[in-house]
Design brief:
The protein is of the alpha+beta class and 448 residues long. The protein has five domains: 55 residues, no CATH class; 162 residues, Alpha-Beta Complex (Lambda Exonuclease, Chain A), CATH 3.90.320; 31 residues, no CATH class; 34 residues; 51 residues, no CATH class. Helix content is 45%, strand content 13%. It contains 16 helices and eight strands. A hairpin with an 8-residue loop joins β1 and β2. α1 packs across α2, α4 packs across α8 and α7 packs across α8. The longest helix has 32 residues. The protein is extended, with a radius of gyration of 32 Å. 18% of the residues are buried. The structure holds iron/sulfur cluster (SF4) and zinc ion.
């Protein structure tokens, strides 16, 4: 067969980085998709089929480029990043729990380290985690240069554990151990209401304890939360307490020992709606979701009450619902009375200096749609004869109504804390100059 002719050197100069092969590949793709079976050999011009080991087929660079570009077309950014990060990951070859398991569900440890025979983990979309990893990498890269006296991604041995911990950020001058967390919408809300979760503190306390144990000065812990949706950031600090670090480490070792001894630890998650379970690879097995769906029961019910619940168990669950709905009705009445007190109050922050941060009164706008009215209008029109009924685009939209009410919110815990004690960021030029001076000093002193 004859190969389509490729103009090897265009008559005009190409911009930097653009090669004649690229232009030739573009021309090839312009003519239609490239069939790999029909690519003419670079030496003899014949298709791949007529080649063998003595005369292997040579794909001309323009064809290779055309194939590569066509294959890369439409590849997702996140798919590429996830693949790259997976390939980069080198298993440490160490065993047992790591500091990052601290405060996590104990049964999840069991699933990971001593799974039951019939367990098949479900695949968890790793894109979220990849975004977190990318943030950590960028943080380490950028801030290690800007603050050269700090250590980023510092590996430290943890007493009693086989695996080292990885400290995101450590400042020996301030004695501060930092951990960076990126939060999606749900986690951000949890952190906003109640501060960082227990497992986040437990992990950081163990990291701090490990640093202290290794002789690094440690005075303070800092959890940095970054909202993955908005880029908003909150910092939470606590004084270093070796006893708290040791306690977190003890809990972790106890859970790991339990698993090691073959004991099945309790579930620490509440069920498929719990954020821990939602991101747990064991969720389907742990909560028997398939069997529950078959029985048309909720997974929580199947696990708590069993396949054939006895009367007392059902009555117990029934009484729970009755007691709680009675309490809810009572609370709703009280809420309505309290809300009435706020109606018409000017929006703003009130009692800001109180220990709980006071409250924020806000105007709440809501929109309601008249679907019922719209439905009735259309039904009336539908009954008209064809020649009288107006075309659909003249019927008009569903009527909507905007209304305002007075609402109340709690300022986010971190915002309150920041108002109280976070120093204003220093002017950047001064900080940069200080960083440069320290970098020069460290270089001169032969930094190890
Ligand atoms: S599904 Fe929930 S309770 Fe079960 S192991 Fe995972 S986190 Fe624990
Ligand atoms: Zn050939």
């Amino acid at each position: 067969m004859s190969a389509p002719t490729i103009d090897p050197a265009p008559a005009f100069p190409l911009p930097e980085g653009i090669t004649p092969d690229m232009m030739a590949a573009a021309a090839l793709l312009d003519a239609g998709p490239v069939d790999p079976d029909l690519i003419p050999c670079g030496r003899c011009g014949e298709p791949p089929l007529v080649h063998d080991a003595d005369h292997p087929h040579e794909t001309p660079p323009a064809y290779a480029l055309a194939l590569a570009a066509a294959a890369a077309d439409g590849r997702e950014v996140m798919a590429d990043l996830v693949e790259h990060l997976d390939a980069e990951h080198v298993p440490s070859g160490k065993k047992g729990p790591s500091a990052s398991d601290a405060g996590k569900c104990r049964r999840a440890l069991w699933y990971r380290d001593r799974p039951p025979a019939d367990y098949v983990p479900r695949t968890i979309d790793s894109r979220r985690a990849a975004l977190g990893t990318i943030l950590h990498k960028a943080n380490a890269e950028v801030r290690a240069v800007r603050y050269p006296w700090r250590r980023y991604e510092l590996r430290v041995a943890v007493p009693g554990l086989d695996r080292d911990c990885l400290v995101d950020e450590y400042d020996p001058v301030l004695g501060r151990v930092g951990d960076l967390k990126s939060a999606g919408e749900a986690k951000w809300a949890i952190v906003g209401d109640d501060g960082p979760t227990a497992d986040q503190w437990a992990q950081l306390r163990i990291n701090a304890y490990a640093l202290d144990f290794a002789g690094y000065p440690v005075r303070e812990l800092e959890l940095i939360q970054v909202n993955r949706d908005t880029g908003a950031e909150e910092h939470f600090r606590e004084d270093y307490d070796p006893a708290a670090g040791l306690a977190a480490l003890d809990d972790l070792i106890e859970a790991a020992t339990m698993v090691e001894a073959g004991v099945v630890p309790p579930r620490d998650g509440y069920g498929p709606r719990d954020w821990r379970c939602q991101w747990c690879p064991a969720m389907d097995h742990c909560w028997q979701t398939a069997r529950a769906a078959e029985l048309k029961r909720s997974p929580e019910s199947l696990i708590a009450l069993g396949e054939t619940p006895d009367d007392p168990s059902i009555a117990w669950a029934g009484r729970e619902v009755l007691t709680l709905s009675k309490a809810r009705l009572e609370l709703e009445k009280r809420e309505a009375r309290a809300k009435a007190l706020l109606q018409g109050i000017t929006p703003g922050q009130y009692d800001k200096d109180a220990p709980d941060g006071g409250v924020e009164i806000v105007d709440k706008w809501s929109t309601s749609y008249g679907y019922k009215e719209a439905y009735e209008t259309i039904r009336d029109l539908y009954e008209l004869p064809d020649d009288v009924r107006p075309p659909l685009d003249q019927v008009g939209d569903v009527p909507k109504k905007r209304s305002k009410s007075t609402g109340v919110t709690k300022p986010r815990a971190a915002t309150r804390a920041a108002d109280r004690r976070r120093p204003k960021p220093k002017a950047l030029p001064a900080a940069d100059a200080a960083a440069a001076a320290v970098a020069a000093q460290l270089d001169a002193g032969g930094r190890s």
